[in-house]
């Protein structure tokens, strides 16, 4: 036994996959110990807040200001302009500013503003320009001038007569110490469409998806192993019957069968456990066929015939003389079934047929929510890319472990 374990851990592929998978398991165990709030708590009142550290604006106003003599970065004026305003700047630069179309089209907002301030003269009249256009460009220039001007921000408060009176001014050289701000929150992966912390939700969803994969893997492997052992060892009518049922399920694509069963169950009844069970009972066919072929090659070996002559029962022969010889193959089948179960849940959830739950999340549900709220269209990569990466890493690690085991136990693949 120990010698077999040593051989397994000499496989670079198995070790790599094992380390990645254990790291994911440790993340799901240790992270909730330090971040204890509910993963489905709504922390933002808007959709898809970007990753970063959020501090209370009220606290920054009340905090003690520190005047620092350091070089200040210009505010991102380009973000304050609308798309049609940027298009108008491009149009003016090409028609009246003497700029080439290629220079203007490829320029970003900040470069366009630099070109505009260098070329535009509000007092100059341009031939062929309508009076309404002239007024529009003057208003646009005035807006840009105000955005580029460094003005103090006035903080006012209401007095007893409901009139606003100046309380203080905030200069561009005023800074606050972040350590003195008590109300702050770091959202490493921002928030999703519901305003929930994506990182905390991702860890919780990974835990749930692993549980679904584990249950589905156990169910599918148990069914496939039992039927494969019986069909391969007993043969005859039992073998024909099991093979007929297996072929019947094989003809119907398992994913189509999975969709039909999930839909027929109904949305309210589809919990995490039930979805895992449905995935398991639709994924056993290839395990049955593979185990059956292995058992057929073993049932006429000398040690099996000797046990038959000794009067041992069929159950004992299967458990002591056949099962140990295919144990490594069963482990590899189980690993693949776990990976298949996680991917199947993600596919079902993307179609809206996954677990119907408001108390927990899965990787598939997170992808479904991101898709429904068009995260991939509005640039909110943090809502779906970490989920895709986690699914890919789980599948990659499990398949790498399976490949490593195959190299160890398959004589044809040994170095």
UniProtKB/TrEMBL annotation:
PROSITE patterns: ABC_TM1 (PS50928)
Chain ranges passing through the membrane: 12-35, 212-234, 241-265, 271-291, 322-342, 348-369, 381-401
Domain ABC transmembrane type-1: 206-402
Coiled coil region boundaries: none
Pfam families registered for this protein in UniProt: BPD_transp_1
InterPro entries attached to this UniProt entry: BP-dependent_transpt_permease (IPR050366), MetI-like (IPR000515), MetI-like_sf (IPR035906)
UniProt KW keywords: Cell membrane, Membrane, Transmembrane, Transmembrane helix, Transport
The organism's place on the tree of life at top rank: Bacteria
Membrane topology qualifier: Multi-pass membrane protein
Any Gene Ontology biological process: transmembrane transport
Listed GO CC annotations: plasma membrane
Chief location bin: membrane
Cellular compartment(s): Cell membrane
Similarity comment: Belongs to the binding-protein-dependent transport system permease family.
Protein name (record): ABC transporter permease
Source organism: Porcincola intestinalis
Source species taxonomy: Bacteria, Bacillati, Bacillota, Clostridia, Lachnospirales
